[in-house]
Amino acid sequence: MNQEIFTINNVWMMVATILVFIMHLGFAALECGLTRAKNTINILFKNTIIPALGLLTYAFIGFNLMYPGDVFSGGFLGLSGLGLSLPEGWDTSAYSEGYTFFTDFIFQAMFAATAATIVSGAVAERIKLGPFLFFSLIYVGICYPIVGMWKWGGGFLDTLSTPFYDFAGSTIVHSVGGWGALVGAYLLGPRIGKFTERGMNAIPGHNIPMAVIGVFLLWFGWFGFNGGSVLSADPGTVSLVFVTTSIAGAAGAFGALIASYLKFKSYDITMVLNGILAGLVGITAGADQMAVWESAVIGLIGGALVVFAVVFFDRLKVDDPVGAISVHLVGGIWGTLAVGIFGDLASFSQFISQLIGVAAVGVFCLVSSWILFYGMKKTVGIRVHEQEEVEGLDISEHSMRAYPDFATKE
Amino acid sequence: MNQEIFTINNVWMMVATILVFIMHLGFAALECGLTRAKNTINILFKNTIIPALGLLTYAFIGFNLMYPGDVFSGGFLGLSGLGLSLPEGWDTSAYSEGYTFFTDFIFQAMFAATAATIVSGAVAERIKLGPFLFFSLIYVGICYPIVGMWKWGGGFLDTLSTPFYDFAGSTIVHSVGGWGALVGAYLLGPRIGKFTERGMNAIPGHNIPMAVIGVFLLWFGWFGFNGGSVLSADPGTVSLVFVTTSIAGAAGAFGALIASYLKFKSYDITMVLNGILAGLVGITAGADQMAVWESAVIGLIGGALVVFAVVFFDRLKVDDPVGAISVHLVGGIWGTLAVGIFGDLASFSQFISQLIGVAAVGVFCLVSSWILFYGMKKTVGIRVHEQEEVEGLDISEHSMRAYPDFATKE
Amino acid sequence: MNQEIFTINNVWMMVATILVFIMHLGFAALECGLTRAKNTINILFKNTIIPALGLLTYAFIGFNLMYPGDVFSGGFLGLSGLGLSLPEGWDTSAYSEGYTFFTDFIFQAMFAATAATIVSGAVAERIKLGPFLFFSLIYVGICYPIVGMWKWGGGFLDTLSTPFYDFAGSTIVHSVGGWGALVGAYLLGPRIGKFTERGMNAIPGHNIPMAVIGVFLLWFGWFGFNGGSVLSADPGTVSLVFVTTSIAGAAGAFGALIASYLKFKSYDITMVLNGILAGLVGITAGADQMAVWESAVIGLIGGALVVFAVVFFDRLKVDDPVGAISVHLVGGIWGTLAVGIFGDLASFSQFISQLIGVAAVGVFCLVSSWILFYGMKKTVGIRVHEQEEVEGLDISEHSMRAYPDFATKE
């Protein structure tokens, strides 16, 4: 392959890396905006530390777990060493036609922390900081790369007779976070005041402009998340992915707008925001496989699903302050299955493979996050004291306020 | 043409696409910051829905209206079909030397919603949501692409003996939004309390940091808006455009700073912010035609003009909460005419062509937005009730507050 | 060299330019978030005007001072003219293999304002606007490019027998800002209420979400700051720089987290944020020279240093509201010296050259900023009146409030 195309590919992959990086600010802003002012420092602290944690653990062990190569290749688990050791020809097309070794690492590393940032939203406003960071360390450093290997590292989901397909991670990334979010929110129990005898109380987010910033930055970053998952700058595929991604996000907004208007008779901006994200999560598994109209349908359904999912989890009394489970788990499952229904791969056997992938990842993530959260719950405890929760985690965990100059209503 | 240059061009155009996308967050943040806390959800809702609407309508009809090709080519109106149908060789340089079909579509689609996001600022804090969304649907989906075709689709403005010149859309994009903003703000009338017997009252924006975020993101995105309008990665032209764009924005800040200091004897940050935008709007028509000093002059004058325009529209009692008309209409006209005065194309005949373009677009946009807004005013009504306006649109239209944890002064 | 590689390089340099541009929003958001609500307009005003000022002065004189070429080449001072005059072959690889003349200019111009935005944080909440803008004009327009020439323009630091090494500007950019910040903060004296008889009072920032936005945007931009300093799209070097930069920032977060937990027994988000920045500043001098583990060590130490530096400057009663001196001066010195200790250049003679560079730049910046600030202090005055400071600079300097709709505690 010629040096020019290699260099172009690598430039695009680096741009995609930067875009995925800024998604961490997107998550931080979104989760901050959709929770209460008294827990703002806490949520921001977590969403600042997790990307840093993700980069370091991914360099130390995650990348080697996810791409073990011939060492224990395929199957369920492999590890090619610790730390980053440069293969020969690491900065040439001998390593890959699309990127250098370091570009490969850093692009993948930016994804890693996502698994925990998704969880952080669902467990917000009541989880203890230490246990959450320990969960993140293991979930991001060990669990996520193992699941990733199953497909992207050439593991058993990639070697099914009809291989499981997950282009950029509806299952491999988003549902991994979503399952952890579900377990965490369930084991923690709902926030004080969320479910009372008189029914469910909405606890509104304290800063909607921040939530809007978050969603737009996530959408912005998704051009790198999906666009970079082409693993080259191939003009046709990347530009197709841009269109399917954009259209699915846009349709997700309308799916949620319509569903929430029919259900609640109001124009609910948080539903629209989550609808956009659900559309984006939904297209992620098949962004390179769909026609434009199919991406619109996938987004529309994803956006509508998020509204029903939020209501559903509320009924189950699983308290998810930001809607992360509805967006990333429900949206992720929907998007993964959609690859069996729409697009170039649609077939019954593909649908079955998609189901297998969803189930295998689900079981692994449910079990591992259960072990982590339940183990801590029964030992060190995972929930702050009632008084700390009422006062807010910013004071109890950080001795600071996010907005000390403003008068609050609390 | 060789595949390497085609791929590079396409990468640049995709980066430019992403940059234009994030301008929608820029508009959302700016307009949110410059209006009142009680209308924040409403303005953010509109600025979130409009880009989604723009993407979908542009895919369905806008792109075909704007680039009808041989179907009814040239002239005033053409339509090449509905939806996106892939031409042969869509992902090769046979389609275009600078981009694939999908890159072409998505870059243009990101521009489309701008026409309505500009309007949303001028009509903020008193327009009904439903009518505004209907206006946006038609204005973005139909009106904007028709005007765009006149120049960029090979229409009559492009075939004048001295062709009208509008590099990236001072007229085709910004003034289209500006004319709609003028009509909307005029037909709605001023906000309650803006003009009283004792004179004009400034109604300050509620969150200046958001406004600053907005302007910087718009400037950031403008590198894609203008830089992508080169339609290739040609090193000389794109880098020239970067310099003229940056210098005009910077000079716009000083133009507004000087004019507002002379006029009001204060350092008014909102004027400086709008001055930057006016400088950027001003250079947009001729960003590839100007020398560095000319871009500085254009920006300086654009920035100063915005100050006088704000005062002028206040005198006319046209209430534009964010200064959108001054920035996008006045700045857009100035920039368009400047192509006849400065730069490589400067000539009397060019100036006349620029005037023709400004006037033709102005008449079409005034008439079409008048029909839309006036038609709705006389039927469903376009303005919320007095009590709703006083209470804030967040409650009356969305039953939510943007900052429920904070004590407000209202 | 072939046109394809030239075009790719130029695309990457333009992307890097845009990324460095958005760092100015990062500085604005960070400094706004870490100061008080009553001084928000003022800090945003400065951070909006300075980039504009930087672009214009760099076009007028800075670029020619920094890269004087043969005119008075080398040594301590040179000037190749005023304004931008296009050399022959400016848009071809005859000018440079990595970029056109205009790309060269605009990439460098985006760096220029940084010197003053760093200062603005340290002198915040008490400096008069006019004197600060005058300082910025001279410091950005004259002092920064002179220092820059010493190394990047081929001056005496570049021609030492073992040349001083500063890849992207730990000394040339960050410490230049840091020295100015130190002098400014010292000559102004502390804010009212910061140091009282009973000891030091923390004056908390008013909007931590803004600070988080600022740090993430700075990190985001750093991929262009460091990645663009490769001056080409060379896949191996740029991707290495991405990894070292990311790892150093991540390690900086943990360095500050550990140090601040040990010292204060709390999870202090502002320390973590400044730790990230210190890690990034620290790696900047040698981002292309370090192994991954070395970048982690440099970041870790940089992050820890920031905690001790903040305490140290508090003891000296140098009041730096945002920690700019600790981040940019201490971090910059550390990163510069680290090039003599770690990485491919590590040697005793390199360490001495690094010391010489740090000292030479330090002396020049201390003297020049002392002359500027002290001269103004003894004539026009640099500090607002006590009553203005108590009331807040937004009212006294701008007659506006940043958040007029909210009830504040002041």
TrEMBL record, chains A, B, C:
Keywords, comma-separated and alphabetical: Ammonia transport, Membrane, Transmembrane, Transmembrane helix, Transport
Organism this protein belongs to: Echinicola jeungdonensis
Phylogenetic lineage: Bacteria, Pseudomonadati, Bacteroidota, Cytophagia, Cytophagales
Name of the protein described by the UniProt record: Ammonium transporter
Bilayer-crossing regions: 12-32, 44-67, 105-124, 129-147, 167-188, 208-225, 237-262, 269-287, 293-313, 325-345, 351-373
Record carries keyword DNA repair: no
NCBIfam families tied to this protein: amt
Residue ranges occupied by any Ammonium transporter AmtB-like domain in the UniProt entry: 11-403
Membrane protein topology class: Multi-pass membrane protein
Domain of life: Bacteria
Subcellular location: Cell membrane; Membrane
Family matches, as Pfam families: Ammonium_transp
Homology family: Belongs to the ammonia transporter channel (TC 1.A.11.2) family.
Keyword Transmembrane helix (UniProt): yes
